[in-house]
Amino acid sequence: MAGIEITGVSTVYPNGVRAVDDLDLTIADGELFALLGPSGCGKTTLLRTIAGLEPAAAGSVAIDARDVTRLEPGARGVAMVFQDYALFPHMTVAENIAYPLRVRHVAKSRQREVAAQTAGSLSLGELLDRRPGQLSGGQQQRAALARAIAAGAEVLLLDEPLSNLDARLRLEARTFLKRLQHELALTTVFVTHDQAEALALADRIAVMDSGRIRQLGTPREVFQRPADTFVANFIGSTPMNLLPGKASDGAVSVAGARLPVEVDLVDGTPLVVGVRPEYLKVSGAGLSGRVSIVENLGVTSLVTIECADGTLVGLTVPEQEEPAVGEALSVSAAPGRLLLYGEDGRLLGSR
Amino acid sequence: MRAADSDVAGLGATRAIAFVAPALLLIGVFLVFPALWTLYIGITNYQLTGPAAAQPRVVGLDNFVSALNDALFLNSVGLTALFVFGSAVIGQNVLGFVLAWLLRRVRPSLRRTVEAFVLLAWILPGPVVAYLWFAVLSRDGGTFGLLLNDPATAWLVEYPMVSLIVFNIWRGTAFSMLLYTSALAAVPPTQLETARLVGASGWQTVRDVVFPHIRGHVLTNTLLISLWTANDFTPFLLTAGGPNHRSEVLPVLIYRQALESGQLGYASAMSLLLLVGNLVIALVYLRLLRRRA
């Protein structure tokens, strides 16, 4: 039972930057948890604070209900895989994997046994006598994972685990990582700036910005109901439409059209209407305009239509229904997929 | 086409030679000629005064044979080895590394202050620091004696080699510290952090993570400081080789043989032997470096 409990943690760098700012977070035992955000949002600092590599200026970190805030990294029962893998170039794969045991003066025979066993389960069995320099990127990553697992820690921390792999390998590694984590049931926290990676891998995601958590939830919640326009903008491989509009007569007017959705707001209240391109459909009524750009995404196409007032709206259509540029189209949202944000960017509700 | 390729500056051979000629001339006059001259007078009975000064005679390898049978020379070889090993290979090397390692994580202001003091010891002229150390170690009023409440001990007389070794460590550690500081910056931080995360002790981290990365630097540093120390003449300013040859390292012996005893030919032969010793040391280090690559 190794959950992580972060209470009121701030991490301040010597130059005064508050990389993590009064943050609370509970990560359950066995969870695969993603810290997601743009670069500079504090996600890596938070991970390093959990590891003990950065001291927390305030607050406390508890692992397995044990306060580790003042403990050295080596005494926290955490293992970490760095973005560059940090394999020791002068040691073989076997020596790298067994290094955590060597530090603890475990018998040589036992070290070999653990190295062979761990390497086997990560399909590195043939490579035990190679040096890291002789491994491919994917093999290096698995070797680094094997070393972290061999450490016998209760918590596994991964810093941008897939970012050094090429695109194709990344998908394979993603599936592999998810299965491995499932088998080991090890509490795992990983940092990523790639929203698709976070959505695909994680049980839960914390979307971070400026040292704080903007939204915490399952991939489904974060994707379908972004808590504010920042998250809405950040999540999704095609950018969400965020259209400025306002309340009028209990409905919403946006881009010259009146959307038949009920709002309980004073007339003229500014709003932002958010809707994902995937949830817009060509229909008889709704937002209308002319097709200005068509981008082929493979199975679907991203169509951008320009409304009469110049607002651009994107929607995805199946490849066989791709419209011609210049064609007039009306689009409307699937029920429940229209998100209304207030002027401050907070989610008001969905319609 | 080939000629044009190798002549990037478009000077032509004649003008190119004219440009490097002054430098070659200076190197020839001040480095090559004295070296060859030493070689030559090493096989003569050239002396500072007397008939052999006017008309030196070639004596072949006699000087070398007598040097190798000379108890004073063998004594100097031993003292030089002790001096190099104690003050450079162990002293400056270890202290320089320890300083670089410890200063890595302290406040920048403290680090700069310590570095400035260490550097000061290195850049001050030899006669100045020799005089300072003479004042520290001398009998009756030496700072060290007063500190220990033992003013009667003449440290340079009673413990000449220990004094020289301590002095040379103090004097030369800056180079090793600077070299190791930059070498340590080349160790990937994530590898050090990985060691921290698995709970490696300081010594384990140095042995398993840091040292393999800086092996080349260690060898280069040891080579340079060994050669510098073997050829260092500053000990003469502190003890002049005494008392009774107990601190007479090779450069001091050579100087005394040449200018106090006037045996220029004999001293040149010993210089050549010192040069051969240096070459042997350099070759050993180069072999070690190559084996690593």
UniProtKB/TrEMBL annotation, chain A:
Recorded GO CC terms: ATP-binding cassette (ABC) transporter complex, substrate-binding subunit-containing
Occurrences of domain ABC transporter (ranges): 4-235
UniProt feature coiled coil, ranges: none
Alphabetical list of Gene3D superfamilies matching this protein: 2.40.50.100, Nucleic acid-binding proteins, P-loop containing nucleotide triphosphate hydrolases
Pfam family, any one: ABC_tran
SUPFAM superfamilies reported in the protein's UniProt record: MOP-like, P-loop containing nucleoside triphosphate hydrolases
UniProt KW keywords: ATP-binding, Cell membrane, Membrane, Nucleotide-binding, Translocase, Transport
Classification via PROSITE patterns: ABC_TRANSPORTER_1 (PS00211), ABC_TRANSPORTER_2 (PS50893)
Name of the protein in question: ABC transporter ATP-binding protein
